[in-house]
User: Which sequence fits this backbone?
């Protein structure tokens, strides 16, 4: 298994080098700082989404659901729309990036935590009920979003459209620093939980039998998930199926139940997908399609396949 | 000894256990028998704090459920739930190693490895240690689960219907193994059984439940009687004494 991780690590390095060097022109310092910022953002988002998906799947005891599928992306667009609706497009765009980032990140962390820890925990043992809850919540958020979007000026609607898709091309360096610090902290907590998560995978009864304070562990994992998803979404926008795609691939490439392996493997695959994908789209396809659209297309197809196969565990 | 006092439990409107008070003797095999829905599994789940206690008290040795830490209790009492989730990609060795989690919290030492090897040996799983659990037969899988519970090295072991889906040879071999654990390792084993003949043959103590209450308790010789079958199981069957043990003739 370690050999596979080493191979994945090598692929990550190749992707990094390709992204930084392919078609690079101009002064080296500019290339490093310009592409380095985007690379760091891609990495941060990739690792945050893969880790939060692993945590969420362990806590909910299934291998299909991810925070995004449970209506989180719809919540993000709703929060942004509400901000434009109540503040007005002009006021919204006049807000600094830091303010928008901090407000959306906080609002989403709180909402996500409230959402995950109450509604979802009640439906934990019923996959279909959970998916339905997610679909209904997503529909509710989208209806509210659509309602507000109809009420606002078309120019203001354009502001919302602009921030409703994941974007890696316009990342503020200071936002990245804040996001990196917060996500880094959350990732350390997630890594420290790896053994507890292994035990939770055995099922709730066995976990309690083995002396785990299950409620506390679940709460901790949900908080970390909420922080990781909120910050990465607030930084670049929603990536609905990235988590499902990379974690499902990680479980195929490294078929073990140890979270120490799955965390690393999913993070590597996520980095390869984002950095490799962005390199291809930027350098080969000349920005003809946003990366998030391609990932959502492949990830969405995978979600349907897993759902049809009833691939729960 | 496990001491239960005035334990009641309900789910929604339905009363699962009603004012149960009973002592489970130390170092013996106690069989919990009764018809479906009698409250046997709920009683076991409450003792093992898998479900929150509503009223009454449960003492496991000198530990009181609800007052002691989960970790302390996990070193004293283990349970094999009725249908534990099984991860297909775990090897037998990895599964059994989880039994040591209350001691090493994810970082096993040489002593833990010894316990795991011993558990694999006791349950005849050494040869299968590297096999994935989904490659095992029902009997082997059940043994692997109980080996994990054994590796937990607790004085008290609770087993909820461990003979489910096992053929007669696997059932007998498992019960003989549990008998040996009680005798040679001094374990207190509480086991939910549906087949009263296994209870009669292998248990030292029998507790019969119906409608969430304890109906009869005592040695199998004293308790397995036509009135038990009639009052608790609502059936008439004859009982013969074979080798000094009561056997229900079905």
Assistant:
């Amino acid at each position: 298994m370690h050999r596979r991780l080493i191979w994945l690590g090598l692929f990550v390095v190749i992707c990094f080098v390709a992204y930084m060097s392919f078609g690079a022109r101009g002064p080296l310092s500019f290339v490093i700082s310009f592409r380095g910022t985007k690379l760091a953002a891609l990495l941060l988002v990739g690792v945050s989404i893969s880790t939060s998906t692993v945590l969420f799947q362990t806590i909910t005891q299934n291998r299909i659901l991810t925070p995004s599928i449970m209506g989180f992306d719809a919540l993000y667009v709703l929060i942004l729309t509400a901000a434009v609706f109540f503040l007005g497009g002009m006021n919204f765009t006049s807000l600094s990036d830091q303010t928008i980032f901090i407000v959306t990140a906080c609002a989403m962390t709180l909402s996500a935590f409230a959402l995950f820890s109450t509604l979802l925990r009640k439906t934990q043992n019923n996959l279909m009920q959970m998916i339905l809850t997610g679909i209904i919540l997503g529909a509710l958020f989208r209806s509210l979003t659509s309602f507000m979007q109809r009420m606002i000026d078309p120019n203001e609607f354009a502001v919302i459209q602009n921030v409703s898709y994941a974007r890696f091309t316009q990342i503020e360096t200071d936002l990245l620093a804040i996001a990196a610090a917060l996500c880094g902290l959350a990732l350390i907590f997630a890594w420290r939980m790896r053994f507890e998560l292994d035990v939770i995978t055995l099922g709730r009864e066995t976990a309690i039998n083995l002396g785990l304070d299950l409620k506390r562990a679940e709460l901790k994992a949900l908080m970390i998930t909420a922080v990781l998803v909120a910050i990465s979404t607030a930084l670049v926008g929603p990536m609905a199926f990235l988590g499902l795609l990379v974690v499902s691939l990680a479980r195929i490439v490294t078929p073990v139940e140890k979270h120490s392996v799955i965390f690393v493997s999913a993070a590597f695959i996520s980095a390869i997908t984002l950095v490799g994908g962005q390199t291809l789209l930027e350098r080969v396809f000349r920005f003809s399609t946003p990366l998030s659209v391609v990932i959502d297309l492949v990830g969405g197809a995978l979600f349907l396949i897993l759902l049809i196969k009833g691939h729960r565990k | 000894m496990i001491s239960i006092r005035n334990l009641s439990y309900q789910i929604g409107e339905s009363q699962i256990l009603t004012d149960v008070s009973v002592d489970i003797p130390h170092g013996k095999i106690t069989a919990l028998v009764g018809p479906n829905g009698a409250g046997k599994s709920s009683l076991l789940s409450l003792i093992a704090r898998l479900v929150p206690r509503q009223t009454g008290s449960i003492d496991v040795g000198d530990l009181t459920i609800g007052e002691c830490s989960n970790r302390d209790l996990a070193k004293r009492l283990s349970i094999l739930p009725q249908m534990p989730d099984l991860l297909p990609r775990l090897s037998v060795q990895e599964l059994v190693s989880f039994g040591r989690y209350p001691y090493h919290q994810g970082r096993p030492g040489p002593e833990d490895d010894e316990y795991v090897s011993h558990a694999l040996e006791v349950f005849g799983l050494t040869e299968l240690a590297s096999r994935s659990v989904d490659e095992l037969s029902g009997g082997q899988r059940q043994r692997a689960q109980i080996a994990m519970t054994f590796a937990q090295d607790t004085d008290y072991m609770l087993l909820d219907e461990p003979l489910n889906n096992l053929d007669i040879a696997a059932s007998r071999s498992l019960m003989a193994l549990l008998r040996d654990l009680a005798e040679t390792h001094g374990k207190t084993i509480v086991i939910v059984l549906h087949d009263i003949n296994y209870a009669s043959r292998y248990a030292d103590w029998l507790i019969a439940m119906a409608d969430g209450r304890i109906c009869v308790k005592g040695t199998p010789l004293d308790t397995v009687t036509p009135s038990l079958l009639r009052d608790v199981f609502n059936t008439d069957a004859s009982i013969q004494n074979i080798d000094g043990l009561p056997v229900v003739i079905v």
